């Protein structure tokens, strides 16, 4: 099993580091581009949620990302010390209706559900830990 | 963000960058608002170079669609790569955006 770790702080400019981290992992572990982009999307949505809504103070916080590959299964865990939040409780967005009624809220979590095979949430030692599993399809 | 604009008939073609996400959506947003406010109400967005979009990027496109629709204009998308099209489908955006295969079709 291969493992990589990334430590980010709660600032949206860190997304560049996240994209770079995924690009490197994709290259080293031979992950197809589509899976890499989908993982990037899922992690961006979760990370920005934490940055925008996770903290009530103005301090710097660390968000830990661990990614592993075991045969064709990728596991990614995100750990943050923000307020308790289980993204799995967010209702699905309304994806019907006219242009004027459409909103973006909730789409991020919807992407998470759609582009991963399994998502679990834990609240442990005052931390949110979200674990994602995704099977990749190598050509 | 470099945003190439090409006039094609009565349409203005805008070429999107390769990534549209939380780090650059505000830039695209202000550029699109500027373009719409100067009176361009027939816009075709060329997505051929776009390989990554997050909900922040989708939010900007939705904003532009709403703004142009309110002005009785047209905001067309074209040349979506497969993974981008999939994200549009999952978002339910394929039912509100007019999506074309080629730039020419998007401008007619």
Description:
- The complex is a heterodimer of chains A (139) and B (108).
- A 5-stranded antiparallel beta sheet of chain A has the order 1-2-3-5-4, with helices on one face.
- Chain A is built from 3 helices and 5 strands.
- The longest helix of chain A is centred in the N-terminal third of the chain and has 21 residues, at 33-53.
- Chain A is 32% helix and 29% strand.
- In chain A, helix 1 (15-29) packs antiparallel against helix 2 and helix 2 (33-53) runs antiparallel to helix 3.
- By secondary structure, chain A is α+β, with helices and mostly antiparallel strands.
- Chain A has helices spanning 15-29, 33-53, 107-115; strands spanning 2-9, 62-70, 73-80, 118-124, 127-135.
- With 108 residues, chain B is α/β, with parallel strands linked by helices.
- Chain B has one domain (4-106): Transcription Regulator spoIIAA (2-Layer Sandwich).
- Chain B is built from 4 helices and 7 strands, in the order βββαββαβαβα.
- Chain B has helices at residues 25-37, 55-70, 82-91, 103-106, and strands at 4-8, 11-15, 19-20, 42-46, 52-53, 74-78, 98-100.
- In chain B, the strands form 2 sheets. A 5-stranded mixed beta sheet of chain B has the order 1-2-4-6-7. In chain B, strands 3-5 form a two-stranded parallel ribbon.
- In chain B, strand 1 (4-8) and strand 2 (11-15) form a beta hairpin.
- In chain B, helix 1 (25-37) packs parallel to helix 2 (55-70).
- The N and C termini of chain B lie far apart (27 Å).
- In chain B, 43% of the residues are buried.
- The chains are: A alpha+beta (139), B alpha/beta (108).
- The A-B interface holds A 12-13, 15-16, 19, 33-34, 37-38, 40-41, 44-45, 48, 93, 95-96, 98-100, 102, 104, 107-108, 110-111, 114 and B 19, 21-23, 51-56, 58-59, 62, 65-66, 69, 82-83, 87, 90-92, 95-96.
| Count, helices of chain A | 3
Structural class of chain B: alpha/beta
Write down the CATH topology of chain B. Answer: Transcription Regulator spoIIAA
What CATH architecture of chain B would you give? Answer: 2-Layer Sandwich
Mind telling me the C-alpha Rg of chain A?
Answer: 15 Å
Report, as a whole number of angstroms, the end-to-end distance of chain B: 27 Å
Strand order of the largest sheet of chain A: 1-2-3-5-4
């Amino acid at each position: 099993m291969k493992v990589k770790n990334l430590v980010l702080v709660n600032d949206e400019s860190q997304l560049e580091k996240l994209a770079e981290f995924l690009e490197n992992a994709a290259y080293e572990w031979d992950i197809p581009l589509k899976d890499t982009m989908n993982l990037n999307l899922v992690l961006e949505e979760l990370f920005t949620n934490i940055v925008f809504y996770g903290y009530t103070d103005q301090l710097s916080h660390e968000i830990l990302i661990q990614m592993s590959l075991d045969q064709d299964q990728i596991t990614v865990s995100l750990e943050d010390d923000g307020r308790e939040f289980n993204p799995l409780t967010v209702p699905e967005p309304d994806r019907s209706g006219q242009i004027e009624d459409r909103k973006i809220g909730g789409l991020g979590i919807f992407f998470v559900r759609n582009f991963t095979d399994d998502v679990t949430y834990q609240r442990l030692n005052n931390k949110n830990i979200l674990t994602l599993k995704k099977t990749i399809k190598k050509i | 963000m470099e945003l190439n604009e090409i006039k094609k008939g009565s349409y203005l073609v805008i070429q999107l960058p390769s990534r549209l996400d939380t780090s650059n959506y505000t830039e695209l947003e202000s550029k699109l608002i500027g373009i719409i406010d100067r009176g361009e109400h027939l816009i075709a967005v060329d997505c051929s170079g776009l390989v990554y979009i997050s909900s922040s990027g989708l939010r900007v496109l939705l904003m532009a669609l709403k703004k142009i629709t309110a002005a009785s204009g047209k905001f067309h998308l074209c040349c979506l790569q497969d993974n981008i099209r999939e994200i549009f489908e999952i978002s339910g955006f394929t039912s509100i955006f007019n999506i074309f295969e080629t730039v020419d079709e998007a401008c007619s």
